[in-house]
Backbone:
Protein backbone atom coordinates (compact mmCIF):
# COMPACT_ATOMS: atom_id res chain seq x y z
CA UNK A 1 0.00 0.00 0.00
CA UNK A 2 1.13 3.53 -0.70
CA UNK A 3 -0.08 4.91 2.65
CA UNK A 4 -1.27 3.70 6.03
CA UNK A 5 -4.33 6.00 6.08
CA UNK A 6 -7.38 5.07 3.96
CA UNK A 7 -8.30 7.36 1.08
CA UNK A 8 -10.63 10.21 2.03
CA UNK A 9 -14.16 10.62 0.68
CA UNK A 10 -12.83 13.54 -1.38
CA UNK A 11 -10.19 11.28 -2.98
CA UNK A 12 -12.75 8.54 -3.69
CA UNK A 13 -15.10 11.06 -5.31
CA UNK A 14 -12.34 12.61 -7.43
CA UNK A 15 -11.25 9.18 -8.64
CA UNK A 16 -14.78 8.23 -9.71
CA UNK A 17 -16.51 11.48 -10.65
CA UNK A 18 -16.20 10.74 -14.39
CA UNK A 19 -18.08 7.43 -14.28
CA UNK A 20 -21.49 7.30 -15.90
CA UNK A 21 -23.05 5.17 -13.17
CA UNK A 22 -25.92 4.00 -15.42
CA UNK A 23 -23.95 3.32 -18.64
CA UNK A 24 -20.53 2.06 -17.50
CA UNK A 25 -20.87 -1.64 -16.71
CA UNK A 26 -17.30 -2.98 -16.43
CA UNK A 27 -15.03 -1.21 -13.96
CA UNK A 28 -11.57 -2.46 -13.02
CA UNK A 29 -9.86 -1.45 -9.81
CA UNK A 30 -6.12 -2.08 -9.51
CA UNK A 31 -4.49 -2.14 -6.09
CA UNK A 32 -7.75 -2.40 -4.17
CA UNK A 33 -5.93 -2.26 -0.83
CA UNK A 34 -8.32 -2.50 2.10
CA UNK A 35 -11.39 -1.81 -0.06
CA UNK A 36 -12.18 1.85 0.69
CA UNK A 37 -12.44 2.81 -2.99
CA UNK A 38 -13.99 -0.59 -3.77
CA UNK A 39 -16.87 0.14 -1.39
CA UNK A 40 -17.30 3.63 -2.84
CA UNK A 41 -17.58 2.23 -6.37
CA UNK A 42 -20.00 -0.53 -5.32
CA UNK A 43 -22.21 2.03 -3.59
CA UNK A 44 -22.78 3.77 -6.93
CA UNK A 45 -22.54 1.32 -9.86
CA UNK A 46 -25.65 -0.01 -11.56
CA UNK A 47 -27.24 -3.30 -10.42
CA UNK A 48 -26.11 -4.98 -13.67
CA UNK A 49 -22.53 -3.64 -13.54
CA UNK A 50 -19.45 -5.52 -12.41
CA UNK A 51 -16.33 -4.43 -10.51
CA UNK A 52 -13.12 -6.40 -10.92
CA UNK A 53 -10.94 -5.60 -7.88
CA UNK A 54 -7.31 -6.70 -8.29
CA UNK A 55 -5.18 -6.97 -5.17
CA UNK A 56 -1.87 -8.83 -5.07
CA UNK A 57 -1.59 -8.93 -1.26
CA UNK A 58 -3.45 -11.98 0.13
CA UNK A 59 -3.93 -10.35 3.56
CA UNK A 60 -5.68 -7.38 1.97
CA UNK A 61 -7.76 -9.76 -0.17
CA UNK A 62 -9.05 -11.35 3.03
CA UNK A 63 -10.32 -7.93 4.14
CA UNK A 64 -11.94 -7.19 0.77
CA UNK A 65 -13.50 -10.67 0.61
CA UNK A 66 -15.74 -9.65 3.52
CA UNK A 67 -17.56 -7.24 1.18
CA UNK A 68 -20.79 -9.04 0.36
CA UNK A 69 -21.78 -7.85 -3.12
CA UNK A 70 -22.43 -10.11 -6.12
CA UNK A 71 -21.14 -7.39 -8.49
CA UNK A 72 -17.65 -7.66 -6.97
CA UNK A 73 -15.14 -10.02 -8.56
CA UNK A 74 -12.09 -10.09 -6.30
CA UNK A 75 -8.89 -11.21 -8.01
CA UNK A 76 -5.79 -12.04 -5.96
CA UNK A 77 -3.34 -11.56 -8.82
CA UNK A 78 -1.12 -8.92 -10.35
CA UNK A 79 -2.53 -6.25 -12.64
CA UNK A 80 -0.77 -7.62 -15.71
CA UNK A 81 -3.31 -10.51 -15.70
CA UNK A 82 -6.41 -8.31 -15.90
CA UNK A 83 -7.17 -9.14 -19.53
CA UNK A 84 -7.19 -12.89 -18.84
CA UNK A 85 -9.50 -12.44 -15.85
CA UNK A 86 -11.92 -10.22 -17.75
CA UNK A 87 -11.97 -12.69 -20.65
CA UNK A 88 -12.57 -15.60 -18.27
CA UNK A 89 -15.75 -13.84 -17.11
CA UNK A 90 -16.89 -13.03 -20.66
CA UNK A 91 -15.71 -9.42 -20.96
CA UNK A 92 -13.44 -8.12 -23.72
CA UNK A 93 -12.82 -4.62 -22.35
CA UNK A 94 -13.05 -2.37 -19.32
CA UNK A 95 -15.10 0.82 -19.42
CA UNK A 96 -12.70 2.46 -16.95
CA UNK A 97 -9.73 1.45 -14.80
CA UNK A 98 -9.18 2.98 -11.37
CA UNK A 99 -5.79 2.39 -9.79
CA UNK A 100 -4.20 2.97 -6.43
CA UNK A 101 -1.14 0.83 -7.18
CA UNK A 102 1.84 2.54 -5.52
CA UNK A 103 3.78 2.89 -8.78
CA UNK A 104 6.46 4.96 -7.07
CA UNK A 105 7.37 1.85 -5.04
CA UNK A 106 7.65 -0.66 -7.91
CA UNK A 107 10.06 -0.96 -10.85
CA UNK A 108 9.37 1.39 -13.77
CA UNK A 109 9.29 -1.57 -16.18
CA UNK A 110 6.33 -3.10 -14.31
CA UNK A 111 4.56 0.27 -14.19
CA UNK A 112 4.95 0.62 -17.96
CA UNK A 113 3.64 -2.93 -18.52
CA UNK A 114 0.54 -2.21 -16.43
CA UNK A 115 -0.11 1.11 -18.18
CA UNK A 116 0.24 -0.48 -21.62
CA UNK A 117 -2.04 -3.38 -20.69
CA UNK A 118 -4.58 -0.92 -19.27
CA UNK A 119 -4.53 1.16 -22.45
CA UNK A 120 -5.13 -2.00 -24.52
CA UNK A 121 -8.19 -3.23 -22.62
CA UNK A 122 -9.92 0.13 -22.15
CA UNK A 123 -12.93 0.85 -24.34
CA UNK A 124 -12.66 3.74 -26.79
CA UNK A 125 -12.53 6.94 -24.73
CA UNK A 126 -12.28 4.92 -21.50
CA UNK A 127 -10.26 6.44 -18.69
CA UNK A 128 -7.34 5.17 -16.66
CA UNK A 129 -7.41 6.89 -13.27
CA UNK A 130 -4.43 6.77 -10.93
CA UNK A 131 -3.97 8.13 -7.42
CA UNK A 132 -0.50 9.44 -6.52
CA UNK A 133 1.17 11.47 -3.81
CA UNK A 134 3.72 13.00 -6.21
CA UNK A 135 3.89 13.97 -9.89
CA UNK A 136 7.40 12.66 -10.52
CA UNK A 137 6.40 9.89 -12.96
CA UNK A 138 3.97 11.92 -15.09
CA UNK A 139 6.19 11.21 -18.12
CA UNK A 140 5.29 7.49 -17.98
CA UNK A 141 1.59 8.29 -18.40
CA UNK A 142 2.31 10.68 -21.27
CA UNK A 143 4.26 7.91 -23.07
CA UNK A 144 1.17 5.66 -23.10
CA UNK A 145 -1.86 7.97 -23.17
CA UNK A 146 -2.71 10.87 -25.52
CA UNK A 147 -4.21 13.01 -22.78
CA UNK A 148 -3.15 13.25 -19.12
CA UNK A 149 -4.99 15.60 -16.77
CA UNK A 150 -3.89 15.95 -13.14
CA UNK A 151 -6.17 17.10 -10.30
CA UNK A 152 -4.91 18.01 -6.84
CA UNK A 153 -6.87 16.62 -3.87
CA UNK A 154 -5.91 18.58 -0.73
CA UNK A 155 -8.49 16.89 1.51
CA UNK A 156 -6.64 13.60 1.92
CA UNK A 157 -3.85 12.38 4.21
CA UNK A 158 -1.42 12.94 2.69
CA UNK A 159 -2.79 15.32 0.03
CA UNK A 160 -2.59 13.69 -3.36
CA UNK A 161 -3.10 13.83 -7.09
CA UNK A 162 -5.51 12.07 -9.41
CA UNK A 163 -4.21 11.39 -12.91
CA UNK A 164 -6.96 11.05 -15.54
CA UNK A 165 -5.57 9.46 -18.68
CA UNK A 166 -7.21 8.60 -21.99
CA UNK A 167 -6.57 8.12 -25.65
CA UNK A 168 -8.16 10.58 -28.01
CA UNK A 169 -7.95 8.35 -31.06
CA UNK A 170 -10.42 5.52 -31.56
CA UNK A 171 -9.10 1.97 -31.65
CA UNK A 172 -9.62 -0.10 -34.76
CA UNK A 173 -11.68 -3.21 -34.04
Residues:
Amino acid sequence: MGTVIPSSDAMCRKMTDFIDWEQDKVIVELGAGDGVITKHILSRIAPDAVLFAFEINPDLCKIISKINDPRLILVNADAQTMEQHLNAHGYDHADHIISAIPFLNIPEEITTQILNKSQQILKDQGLFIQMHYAKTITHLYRQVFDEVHIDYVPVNIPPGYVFKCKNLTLKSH
